[in-house]
Backbone:
């Protein structure tokens, strides 16, 4: 999905005794479904669908009591044998002040996607997976199949000539989109597309896998839609609006690329022949060397990078590098810390879960004891004890549920951390764009210098011969032409490099601002929730403490 | 036993020797555990401080040093002498933990021993016991001598108990003796009580198991909060500016809460889990008394049988005017006396058990009430601290402004 492992934390098996609890004591009403497309992914923080679907409240319970406010335990649970009121089953999200942005942010749409905050918006939904047959060129008789997804777009962006669009796309198209954008928008922090997950697609249940992919696609497209530059890209627009096959443009299959490259190689090796195209084609310079077509270029740039590393030639562009390197280091450190916190947060969630589970089991045990003592009671003291036990059991069961609900919320908030790890990957890619652009520049510079030194040598040799050396003079002229073309290519490469640097800079500013805001919201949400649920638990236990205060020494 | 002090309740009798009309009291405290000896021989000794105005104790206060096996000795003696009474339970003999002697283990044991001795001291019959006096007053050498005399005669092997439990639970008649009559009381009320006790033990054991796990969960959560706090603090230093400070504070609060959780774990262990465990032990003690009653009943029945056969023999001898008649008559009288005695013993046990069970139920309601209260209080306080800690962060977070948009706008 994001290119790294989904650890698949199994919230689905949260409570072994949950069924026990349900059958013995409580009949929890099933949570109401949410609006379909907004569900969570399979990354380590995701909870199973049952938790996602619990709606959140709009009012801050601290400021104004609302009719849906959860009542303290003693008034809402009358008997352990009655199911709790539905009001108890719904929990409130306590980060109600920020519910709009928090909700949206936690679902990967940043603030700029909200209609109330900016004048343009674009919202993308992925739904309705359908199985289709592979048409032509299939080696397997009977045909293999693939899935398509309905991509629905709502937008008011002027580039789109309409407000709503529907297209069908398959995953391969998404890969193409992603590759196209990576080529055209070097230096930008481009969201990472979902994994191809070849193994998972074989191993998982088909409908589970398709659903997982659908969710991942929706998240990915959502991130693209929220990027201030990418959302206006031609590539995205075409993907979202143009029905039919995605134009494949430059991505040809590997085999033909290799052939192409091999054919051109001799021409490049013999360089100086009348084919001026021995110099790098200017337009190609703006792309990093890749694939078979650029074998020679790859070799050259590799040589250059080795030269660079060994410090034989100093890179021509230095002034910003220090600042850049510092920033890069800082970001690496940041990535490390985010990763650590993310891990610890996962652990925290697990421990809360275990606590809730054990509390629930304790409650259950006391429920059984209460029943037992009540049925077998001969003495009044037994009846009194049964009553005390019932209060404790009820509170324990309630606390257990509170832990579960708290966790579902915590997961939602801390998921932001997980997402930023993905963003860091995008940052690394953008930095690699910069590095490879720089390498291209340096390669060309170095080539220029070697060309010029060849010219010098030839001139020197030719000057010794009276009347000139015809072949040498011709050679010099050819070289001069090559130099001119290479010079142009170099200038182009430098421009590209500067462009990428500028993109990096802008994106870094954007990242810092957005990250600051996102983390701030995350912290607030986390803290408010923890506090809210702790207060609920305190109330629950206070009641029992009061009821048993007669025993206090 | 001082007749003046025998009474139904603990506090009404007066002794002519006591200077004031103060109610009689006997309180004990078990304190100051100290590790003695080395290696395999190592043990813990406790200070046992007795405060009393019982005349037999000759003095208002006495301090002695005792070890766990001394308590075991006392319990065994009481069990032998006071059949029918539910002897307060002792903490388990631990073979493994003993070597580790963690501070927590020592504290738990000390608490349990203190509770044990005080229960004995406040039971209107048990407090009269000579063995209790020995335990509370004698010096260590005497105590050691007493302990070493305790060989086999009074000690019941676990295997014996197992057999007795089997008899109690199943209604298999005594086929071994070739007699078809049952050796079980056919008392439906008593049957009900026995079933109650056995089932109660299962229920309590389960509750105690989960209570113990809950303690562990508290510790684990505490550790997790500490790790989380540290990681968040590091992230804070990375971020810098006001947000970074907010992170750092959050991390600090998290670490603080970790400490609260560890404390609550300890509190939960001592004030909730231990009382539950104690409850389980108490029920097991009752099971031992049930076994004693079964033995007494069996003895009584067997004697009654034997007496009947003796009567038949006697009549035969009378008819034949045998010279064995005199002997036989003497034996018969002896048997009748024994029979009376065994009947008395059995009936005492029955009477005592009835008293004891009522007392037990009342006592347990109080004990559990206290434990529940402590549990609830502990959880409430913990939750309140947690809420407070998190809420205290909000002002600082509110003070941080947004870059892109203020969602409150």
Residues:
């Amino acid at each position: 999905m994001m290119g790294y492992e989904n650890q698949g934390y199994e919230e689905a098996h949260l409570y072994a005794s949950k069924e026990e609890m349900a059958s013995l004591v409580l009949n929890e009403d099933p949570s109401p479904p949410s609006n379909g497309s907004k569900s969570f992914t399979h990354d380590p923080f995701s909870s199973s669908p049952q938790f996602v679907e619990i709606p959140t409240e709009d009012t801050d319970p601290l400021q104004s009591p609302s009719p849906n406010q959860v009542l303290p335990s003693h008034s809402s649970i009358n008997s352990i044998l009655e199911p709790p009121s539905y009001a108890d089953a719904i929990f409130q999200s306590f980060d109600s002040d920020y519910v709009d942005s928090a909700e949206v942010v936690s679902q990967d749409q940043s603030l700029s996607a909200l209609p109330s905050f900016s004048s343009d918006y674009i919202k993308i939904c992925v739904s309705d997976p359908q199985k289709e047959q592979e048409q032509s060129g299939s080696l397997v008789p009977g045909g293999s199949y693939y899935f398509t997804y309905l991509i629905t777009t709502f937008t008011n962006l002027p580039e789109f000539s309409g407000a709503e669009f529907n297209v069908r796309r398959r995953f391969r198209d998404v890969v193409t989109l992603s590759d196209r954008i990576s080529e055209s928008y070097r230096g930008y922090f481009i969201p990472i597309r979902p994994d191809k997950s070849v193994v998972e697609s074989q191993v998982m249940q088909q409908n589970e896998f398709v659903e997982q992919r659908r969710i991942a696609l929706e998240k990915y497209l959502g991130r693209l839609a929220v990027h201030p530059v990418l959302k206006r890209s031609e590539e995205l627009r075409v993907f979202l609006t143009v029905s039919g096959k995605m134009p494949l443009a430059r991505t040809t299959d590997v085999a033909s690329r290799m052939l192409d490259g091999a054919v051109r190689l001799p021409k490049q090796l013999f360089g100086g022949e009348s084919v001026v195209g021995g110099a790098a084609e200017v337009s190609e310079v703006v792309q990093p060397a890749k694939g078979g077509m650029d074998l020679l270029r790859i070799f050259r740039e590799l040589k250059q990078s080795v030269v660079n590393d060994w410090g034989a030639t100093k890179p021509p562009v230095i002034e910003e590098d220090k600042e850049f390197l510092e920033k890069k280091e800082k970001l690496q450190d940041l990535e490390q810390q985010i990763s650590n916190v993310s891990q610890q947060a996962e652990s925290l969630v697990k421990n809360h879960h275990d606590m809730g589970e054990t509390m629930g089991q304790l409650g259950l045990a006391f429920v059984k004891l209460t029943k037992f003592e009540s049925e077998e009671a001969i003495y009044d003291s037994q009846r009194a004890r049964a009553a005390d036990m019932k209060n404790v059991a009820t509170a324990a069961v309630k606390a257990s549920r509170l832990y579960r609900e708290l966790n579902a919320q915590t997961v939602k908030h801390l998921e932001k951390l997980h997402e930023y790890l993905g963003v860091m990957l995008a940052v690394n890619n953008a930095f690699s764009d910069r590095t490879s652009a720089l390498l291209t520049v340096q390669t060309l510079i170095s080539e220029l210098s070697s060309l010029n030194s060849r010219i010098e040598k030839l001139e020197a040799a030719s000057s010794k011969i009276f009347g000139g050396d015809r072949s040498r003079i011709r050679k010099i002229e050819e070289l001069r032409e090559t130099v001119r073309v290479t010079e142009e290519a170099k200038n182009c490469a430098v421009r590209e490099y500067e462009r990428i640097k500028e993109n990096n800079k802008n994106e870094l500013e954007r990242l810092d601002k957005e990250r600051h805001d996102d983390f701030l919201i995350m912290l607030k949400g986390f803290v408010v929730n923890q506090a809210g649920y702790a207060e609920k638990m305190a109330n629950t236990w206070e009641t029992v403490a009061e009821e048993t205060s007669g025993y206090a020494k | 036993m001082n007749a003046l002090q025998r009474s139904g309740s603990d506090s009404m009798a007066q002794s002519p020797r006591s200077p004031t009309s103060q109610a009689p009291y006997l309180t004990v405290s078990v304190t100051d555990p100290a590790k003695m000896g080395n290696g395999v021989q190592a043990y813990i000794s406790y200070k046992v401080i007795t405060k009393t105005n019982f005349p037999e104790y000759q003095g208002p206060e006495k301090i002695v040093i005792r070890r766990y096996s001394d308590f075991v000795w006392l319990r065994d003696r009481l069990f032998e002498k006071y059949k029918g009474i539910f002897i307060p339970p002792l903490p388990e003999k631990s073979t493994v933990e003993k070597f580790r002697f963690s501070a927590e283990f020592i504290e738990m044991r000390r608490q349990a021993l203190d509770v044990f001795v005080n229960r004995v001291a406040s039971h209107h019959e048990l407090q009269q016991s000579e063995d209790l006096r020995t335990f509370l007053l004698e010096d260590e050498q005497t105590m050691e001598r007493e302990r070493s005399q305790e060989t086999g005669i009074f000690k019941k092997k676990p295997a014996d108990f197992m057999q007795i439990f089997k008899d109690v639970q199943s209604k298999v008649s005594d086929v071994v003796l070739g007699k078809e009559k049952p050796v079980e009381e056919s008392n439906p009320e008593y049957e009900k009580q026995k079933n109650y006790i056995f089932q109660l033990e299962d229920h309590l054991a389960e509750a105690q198991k989960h209570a113990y796990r809950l303690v562990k969960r508290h510790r684990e959560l505490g550790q997790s909060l500490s790790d989380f706090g540290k990681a968040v603090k590091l992230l804070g230093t990375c971020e810098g500016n006001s947000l970074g400070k907010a992170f750092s504070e959050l991390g600090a609060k998290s670490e603080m809460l970790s400490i609260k959780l560890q404390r609550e774990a300890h509190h939960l262990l001592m004030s909730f889990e231990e009382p539950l465990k104690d409850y389980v032990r108490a029920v097991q003690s009752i099971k031992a008394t049930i076994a004693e009653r079964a033995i007494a009943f069996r003895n009584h029945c067997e004697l009654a049988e034997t007496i009947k056969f003796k009567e038949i023999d006697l009549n035969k001898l009378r008819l034949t005017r045998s010279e064995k008649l005199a002997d036989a008559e003497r034996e018969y009288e002896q048997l009748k006396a024994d029979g009376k005695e065994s009947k008395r013993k059995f009936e005492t046990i029955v009477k005592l058990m009835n008293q004891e069970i009522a007392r037990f139920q009342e006592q347990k309601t109080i004990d559990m009430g206290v434990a529940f209260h402590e549990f609830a209080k502990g959880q409430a306080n913990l939750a309140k601290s947690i809420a407070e800690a998190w809420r205290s962060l909000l002002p600082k977070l509110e003070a941080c402004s947004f870059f892109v948009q203020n969602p409150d706008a």
Observations:
- Chain A touches chain B through 75 residues (CB under 8 Å).
- Residues 88 and 168 of chain A are 42 Å apart (CA to CA).
- The longest helix of chain A spans residues 380-463.
- The longest strand of chain A covers residues 122-133.
